[in-house]
């Protein structure tokens, strides 16, 4: 038999971990493996809010694929996936086509705007290195402009964060730390700046421990962040937003709105013909697509139910990396002619949300609540562990976070 062709789409947390694990399990003689990604670098999606706020340089976040993947064992193709054709076992790229025996889809997420007028056109989203860089530049430009116009425009200094979930709160923590620096750089009174988190639910970080939520709100409020909970964003314009709270609508002028209130799987899933449920593939226990057993799906494109809660697991880097290990194991088994594939089991190692560089909240080891310095230290260890998993000690030493104190 010819060597099977394995194609991995996306070099995010799911795709790159699959590739790294596979290169240890299979040799060039076993299979022909190709990794496809839009850019020639992988990025730590979980750090993008820091790049967006300008508290971490984007070069710390991106890692050249060739520094992680052994190109003697895996072919890397830098290209954009345009279409997945599972019935023909083909993937259409912007600059060509690939056929496969086994496919791994790890194309990540896109912003979900829920049809709110103006979000798509006027709000910024934190979903790639380039989108994060744009936010950083845009905020800085508005601070720079503020003292350079005859008539002051307060909306230049108003930053709206749509969504008080993990991404919105983590961004709020970073921007709250960056604003005093920007004010100093551009001779602005910090009292003129507003950072406003809008959250539709009655509380920020819905589902998180109430004591930790209170801690997070106090920490951010002390640094100037305002919260409007039970407040729904109704419209986003280029120069402001409208939100609704207690059946009353209010406008806030703002030139910067960050939309962090929802993500959906890459829309290529919906157009692919793979069976999907609200845009994600409801994978089988072995992480194969139910409609196409030669297709594995990893990360934010996969839907896996948490039997305990009856709800899908939220999309996280943690679950994406664990899924990738199962997929690599199962692909290796298939290539070696084994039929018994491993079932995926999620091991919840907890979750920690940063509130800026030296503060955080989290729950680890099942139910241990942590906050402040301990949580911030833990968050950095989690970030370093993710680096270790994809690139070993060398990558941790190069890109790791060691500013513990
Ligand atoms: P990604 O890591 O997003 O990778 C997708 C890859 O596919 C990217 O490299 C992209 O360039 C590539 N791609 C996309 N479309 C195409 C195309 N058409 N052609 C070619 N390539 C393409 N999770 C946690 O566990 N803990 C956290 O603390 C945490 N914090 C977060 C903070 C922020 C600001 C954000 C945005 C997310 C955070 N997450 C966190 C969620 C986590 O980052 C995602 O769940 C995770 O990245 C999903 O991995 P993935 O492999 O599915 O997608």
UniProtKB/TrEMBL annotation:
One Pfam entry name: Pyr_redox_2
Family: Belongs to the NADH dehydrogenase family.
UniProt protein name: NAD(P)/FAD-dependent oxidoreductase
Cofactor(s) listed: FAD
GO molecular function: NAD(P)H dehydrogenase (quinone) activity
Span of domain FAD/NAD(P)-binding: 5-324
Lineage, broadest ranks: Bacteria, Bacillati, Bacillota, Bacilli, Bacillales
One GO biological process term: aerobic electron transport chain
Signal peptide extent: none
Annotated PANTHER family: 64 KDA MITOCHONDRIAL NADH DEHYDROGENASE (EUROFUNG), APOPTOSIS-INDUCING FACTOR 1
Keywords: FAD, Flavoprotein, Oxidoreductase
Species: Radiobacillus deserti
Keyword Transcription applies: no
Key word Cell cycle present: no
